[in-house]
Write a structure and sequence with these properties.
This protein is α/β, with parallel strands linked by helices and about 500 residues long. It folds into 2 domains: about 10-150 and about 350-495, FAD/NAD(P)-binding domain (3-Layer(bba) Sandwich); about 160-220 and about 260-345, FAD/NAD(P)-binding domain, CATH 3.50.50.60. About 30% of the residues lie in helices and about 20% in strands. The protein is built from 14 helices and 20 strands. The radius of gyration is 24 Å and the shape is globular. About 40% of the residues are buried. Residues about 1-10 have low confidence and may be disordered.
């Protein structure tokens, strides 16, 4: 008589940990697992190359607004950054270098998109479906980040435009702006980097602004060969420089999360920056924000305002009524003919998980778990009803003042400790207690009420109900403290 078949064996390769995404979060999780001596894991990447945000966003002028030596892993510091603020190309090269140095390449499965995952309560594993077949895992870690789904505005006639149109994060490198009439919709972090790059080439550039951003000077400069040499040879100097930069940025949390009135000096600096670069009082008035600095993302740029003073650049503050086959119609009824439209409209943070079907205990959907109140997680990492499912940079772990890499490393440490405890103690699954999840988020939302993000502006930090499900309400070292260990007492533990 043939032996009964094991359903686990028929579900494809078995792994202890499956990580979704090969950006900073996924690579950090993989690197920490390797350092801990845990090799039974894979990193799934839906695209044909690794890299995450800094691979996908390759528009002209793409760069980071956090200093290079801080926007990098503490365990993989580099002394060879060429500028104080890294370009997109340097950041992507850095992530590829980390993957190689940390031995992650054999663990990465490229062109392998997550199609769905179901938690099997009978055996305590995740059954995962991908574009390349099935697999199973004891732990499923989502490292996809919040800035992966382009937000395409619902503008009447958008689909009927006959010219070139694309989102900033899906840049069309076959598009040549020279001699073209170009419209850029949006004035966020991507748009203000794109406009100075293409404005000198375009015959005309129309920038559609709904709300002016606060723009601060960008203290960027080249890092000299001597500085690179010293940072490479004197390791304590590298740590000291990183720590000094961290403190300079961390102190800003006082004005963002605790006492918004402390932002007055920064507001004065931003207004002085605007006055220096825009002489026309009418244009300057259109570019002056009316909300508290920090309520929306503060941007760093030195050549954005000068680009708007060019004779071929027009700031359009009228709303958009519709898009025709050949142009844009504003709310005043004016139609402005254009050859190309660049959507600098940001990302759909509220629905960042996308349509992927992840089902936990009892078949409950991860997407449905958010409900109308928005997705909530315990310490930004776990959700009730989803055993052994972890998120890196989940809800309310975003920052408005410091480096997300610090938050990623903190979240990864929490997940790693859970995996270590499971391997040591042999339990089958851990699921956050609903009461712990509710209490954590009630306290978090209470703290957010005193922040600058609650002063009345509309931003991508808030969901459709005005609830902040994006940002961490305080110092980053506080988040590191609360994620320093996996607090198993707040979890329902199942044992074999």
């Amino acid at each position: 008589m043939a032996e009964p078949r094991n359903p686990v064996d028929e579900a494809g390769p078995q792994h202890h940990v499956v990580i979704i995404g090969s950006g900073f979060a996924g690579l950090c999780m993989g690197a920490r697992l390797k350092r801990a001596g845990i090799d039974d894991f894979v990193i799934l990447e839906k695209d044909s190359e690794l890299g995450g945000t800094w691979r996908v966003n390759d528009y002209p002028g793409a760069a980071c607004d956090v200093p290079s030596h801080l926007y990098s892993f503490s365990f993989a510091q580099s002394a060879r950054w060429t500028r104080k603020f890294p370009s997109r190309d340097e950041l992507w090269a850095y992530t590829r270098g980390v993957a190689e140095r940390c031995g992650l390449i054999p663990h990465i499965r490229l062109a392998t998109a997550l199609a769905g995952a179901d938690y099997d309560e009978a055996v305590g594993i995740w059954r995962i479906r991908t574009s390349q077949g099935a697999m199973t895992a004891r732990f499923l870690v989502l490292g996809t980040g919040a800035l992966g789904r382009p937000l395409i505005p619902e503008i009447p006639g958008l689909a009927g435009f006959r010219g070139t149109i694309f989102h900033s994060s899906r840049w069309d490198h076959g598009f040549d702006p020279r001699g073209k009439r170009v419209a850029v919709i949006g004035t966020g972090a991507s748009a203000i980097q794109i406009v100075p790059e293409i404005a000198p080439q375009a015959a005309r550039l129309d920038l559609y602004q709904r709300t002016p951003p606060w723009v601060m000077p960008r203290p960027d400069r080249a890092i000299t060969p001597l500085e690179q040499f010293l940072l490479a040879r004197v390791k304590p100097l590298q740590w000291l420089y990183r720590f000094k930069t961290y403190l300079q940025y961390e102190i800003r949390a006082l004005a963002f999360a605790y006492w918004p009135q402390l932002g007055a000096p920064a507001r004065a600096q931003a207004l002085a920056h605007l006055r220096r670069q825009v002489a026309d009082p009418t244009l300057r008035a259109k570019l002056t924000p009316s909300y508290a600095l920090g309520c929306k993302r503060v941007l760093l740029m030195n050549d954005y305002y000068p680009a708007l003073t060019r004779p071929n650049v027009h700031l359009v503050t009228d709303g958009i009524r519709a898009i025709t086959a050949s142009g844009i119609v504003t709310t005043t009824g004016e139609e402005r003919a254009v050859d190309a439209i660049v959507l600098g409209t940001g990302f759909d943070v509220e629905h960042c998980l996308g349509p992927i079907a992840v089902r936990g205990r009892g078949g409950g959907s991860l997407l449905d778990s958010a409900g109308d109140g928005g997705l909530e997680a315990y310490k930004g990492a776990t959700i009730a009803g989803f055993p052994n499912l972890f998120m890196i940079t989940g809800p309310n772990t975003g920052l408005g003042h410091n480096s997300m890499i610090y938050m990623i490393e903190s979240g990864v440490a929490y997940v790693l400790d859970a995996i270590r405890q499971q391997r040591r103690d042999g339990w089958r699954s851990a699921e956050v207690r609903p009461e712990a999840l509710a209490a954590y988020n009630a306290d978090l939302q209470h703290r957010l009420k005193r922040s600058v993000w609650a002063t009345g502006c509309k931003s991508w930090y808030l969901d459709h109900n005005g609830k902040n499900t994006t940002l961490w309400p305080g110092f980053t070292f506080v988040y590191r403290w609360v994620t320093r260990r996996f607090d198993i007492a707040n979890y329902i533990i199942e044992r074999p």
